Amino acid sequence: MKVRILVRLKPGVLDPQGRAVHHALEGMGFAGVEDVRVGRMIDLDVADGTSDEALDDMCRKLLANMVIENYEIQKLSETEAA
Amino acid sequence: MAFRAAVVTFPGSNCDRDMAVALEQVSGTAPLRLWHGDAELPQGLDFIALPGGFSYGDYLRSGAMAANSPIMRSIIAAAERGVPVLGVCNGFQVLTESGLLPGALMRNASQNFICRAVSLRVENNQSLFTSAYDANEEIRIPVAHHDGNYFADDETLDRLEGEGRVAFRYLEPVNGSRRDIAGVLNAAGNVLGMMPHPERAIEPAHGGSDGRRLFESAIKALVAA
To answer: In this predicted structure, what is the pLDDT of residue A78?
Structure first.
């Protein structure tokens, strides 16, 4: 089973990296960029039947830092995973 | 009575030798050297140091992989028994990632790696790591980090301040840390995490020796115990 984990900074947590990317985009002449937040995407290939609890546990204990980040778990279909 | 300290080396640690030299110079006894894969700690440790560096290449987040290494399970248990644990720089990141200290260390607000001596104020000189400093003393200690921007929510920050758990505060803008926090203690006071490197300020040849008294404090606390 292919699972995609999206890790994002929580709203309100300042994202220096996103701000730098925002400045760079503006400097390159791209107008109308209101905000940039940089996150992380982690693709897992796990055994079929891996429980949602286990996936949550992986995210909470390692893949995301719950002090500053939220995570979203997406189970991918065959076509999305390809 | 010999000071039985240990310095942990993770793959990618690079201040472990400096930490060992500092501990030996100040205490007169060379510390034990431990490896991240050691599941058990030697008996009777008086002090555990987690050094600076880039453990596991800072993969995922600084300190995240090291926080889940075999030796950290034993160090968390030792810290809960009251063994003093000092984490410097990457060691601080490991302590927050492991949950021994609150908050998180994010990328510096400037995005730059910062490597210079900075001025700090000793906010709490009652802890076992800081008792040899004067109250509100201003000291200079070098920093060298990319991810030293301390973050915690307001409620946590208020609690830390109220409980005297902010050990050191920057006296100048450094990395964007909330409330200029440079070092924090756990609730019991036996775990200290700090971004500045006291082990790099032990003797005048280092450009300053303000870090020395941190180790002297810990040794004094042990002798008094």
So the answer is: 75
Q: Which of B60, B61, B108 sits opposite A16 (nearest CB)?
A: B108
Separation of CA B174 from chain center = 17
Which whole number is the average pLDDT over B16-29?
96
Residues 6+ apart with CB under 8 A from A79: none
Contact B103 A67 (CB under 8 A): yes
For each of the domains in chain A, give its residue range(s) and CATH number, in order of start: 2-81 (3.30.1280.10)
Which helix (H) or strand (E) segment is B43 a member of? none
Tens digit of each residue's pLDDT (9 = 90 or more) over A11-56: 989 898 899 999 999 999 999 999 999 999 999 999 999 999 999 9
ipTM: 0.85
- Could you give the angle at the alpha carbon of B99 between the alpha carbons of B71 and B199, nearest 5°? 65
The CATH number for B129's domain is: 3.40.50.880
Structure tokens at B67: 């926080």
Nearest chain A CA: its distance from B67 CA (Å): 9
Whether A65 and B64 lie within 8 Å, measured CB to CB: yes
